[in-house]
Amino acid sequence: EAVVRFRLRAKQALGSGALKLVASGAGKRASATATVSLRPAGVFQAQLQSGSFDSGSLEVPLARRLRPERRRLEASLATSPLAIAGGLEAWLAEYPYGCTEQLVSQALPATLLAARPELGRTNLAGAPERWARLLVELRARQNADGGFGYWPADQDAAPYPSVYALHALLEAQARGQAAPRDMLERGGAWLSDFAAGEDGALARERSRAYAIYVLTRMSRVASNFANAEVERLDARYGKRWRGDITAAWLAATYQSMRQVAPARELIGGLRFTDPARPWAPEAAVRAGNAGAPAGDAEAGDFDASDGFAYTASVHDAQLAFVLARHFPERLRELAPTALAALATQPRAGHSTASAAWTVLALDAWAAAGESAGPPPALSIEERLAAGQARALEPSGTAVRRAGFSGDAVALRYAAPRGTRVFWTVTLAGYDREPPRDVLRQGLEIVRDYVGADGKPVTTVRQGDELTVRVRFRSLAKRDYWDGVVVDVLPGGFEPILDDPVRPAAGGRWSPDYVDVREDRVIAFGPIGAEAGELSYRIRATTAGRFVVPPAYAESMYDPAVQARAAASQIVVEAR
User: Fold this and answer.
1) Nearest to 462 by CA among 384, 529, 546, 536
2) Residue 349: closest CA among 441, 254, 232
3) Are the C-beta atoms of residues 47 and 90 closer than 8 Å to each other?
4) 3-state secondary structure 6-46
5) Which pLDDT value is given to residue 506?
């Protein structure tokens, strides 16, 4: 036996690099092939921009430059707001995390939009397979009581994600997709138990009203639950709660049961948001001005047990969905403000909840006959760095959609002046030059590699085991219940899988769920003002000089809140 050392340098193309090894001698010959993974020094990111204009043209700058591998660059333009629905679905398809709400939000929009060929999309042909994969996940997460855990192996049902998953089953079933009867029957039993409860702040009552609505969609009598909910909310909040989306779910329940008077009373106090005013739904109910919510920041006293963020964009999308499905005459009355609300992207970008609910709302809008007619002349062109303009060739009818090149620095949309049109830009992929500077936007994160002596190291020897220490905290005077920490390993290292991820000594932080992969560790849990620490072990397997990608943290339901550690290098010396 002998050891032969090879020196390799990573080139620009990502993917699997093949090495063919040949040994020969004494008339004999043998060969083998090995592969080496060439990974980017950063994380895959999908970004969506959307909006509307009626000025005749609009130019949208493109800030990111992406590598060609797995890159998706797509622009759309239409007089129908369904253009935005297609862009949101494309963004959701690339979302990297997987709690129950996020999995449902990824699969349901594709199921809804696959029945709409006017979108001109090609990737929706795989919608049935995506839905089938979701059913496998949901079955694994449904507990004995019929509710669904937030993460795999959760023993307790998460209220909002459970109601949302059951609602998604009904929507998919109505479009010919599978919805297992046993899963719905067990889920219906859980909904009845949850609907009969009386615990929780308004966030919990919001999920309870939603559960009562879904029970009604299952053709179960829910009038007693609805009446009890209205009486309880009136007793706690007077009439002030009726500007909250809770009222919309109860109004839709009464409308479904042909109880027109209470339905009209409840739906009459709801409005779409005003971007000029701050958004704090729980505080608004207490202060008595809940009838005019606005803005797009999370409620100050949000109840994390509700399982999602009730933002202005979620409020608007859920209200549009209820109006389109159950009160179409009121939707037509509020059409201009509804479209403006749905077309305006949140300042910090969409969460999975706001994106999926916007697709649900726009699909219901189209089903109510509110989509636009044949489009006028629409065009899209890309601008290159040298100043050239190149016309794109969009496909589709009602929605004009086209890919653009990786060299584009801007897109220019054009339509007849005075025509309201809706546009999207999707940029998904790995940055050519990943950011290396520190980022602190509401959060802070620091990552060290620690040797056996407890001190940070930048040079190690092949075979050494290191402790990765990731520390993070909120810079605001609040906790983020929906935090995620992503730490990508450098090349030449592997996680020690028989040594599980563990919280720091003293138990200052314990993750809700940890996903350990070959090349990264992803931990989910609350991030508060008190510093949290995540610790796990890795082993140096290959000698060389490697880029250390920056560790990253974010609030999943508040995209403006994120942090990035500094990138660095580490040297592994051969033994």
Assistant:
1) 546
2) 441
3) no
4) CCCCCCCCCEEEEEEEEEEECCEEEEEEEEEEECCCCCCEE
5) 56
What are the tokens at 302?
A: 């949000």
Spell out where 475-531 has E strands. 480-488, 493-495, 502-503, 513-516, 520-527
Name which of 118-132, 197-211, 392-406, 556-570 the model is least confident about: 118-132
Angle at 211 between CA 210 and CA 215, to 5 degrees: 120
| Beta carbons of 416 and 377 less than 8 angstroms apart | yes
Direct distance between the N- and C-terminal alpha carbons of the chain, in angstroms, rounded to an integer = 17
Task: Identify whether the C-beta of residue 380 lies closer than 8 Å to the C-beta of residue 394.
Answer: yes
**pTM for this prediction:** 0.89
What is the spatial distance between Cα 324 and Cα 45, in angstroms, rounded to a whole number?
Answer: 33
- In DSSP terms, 515 is beta-bridged to 522
Hey, what are 58's tokens?
Answer: 């609009």
Burial class (CB in 10 A: 0-12, 13-18, 19+), 138: buried
Closest C-alpha among 133, 141, 140 to residue 162: 141
pLDDT tens, residue by residue, 20-70? 999 999 999 999 998 888 888 888 888 999 888 999 999 999 989 999 999
The larger pLDDT score, comparing residue 29 to residue 339, is at 29
Which letter, b or e, does each residue of 36-75 get, where b requires 16 or more Cβ atoms within 10 Å of its Cβ? eebbbbbbebbbbbbbbbeeeebebebeeebbeeeebbbb
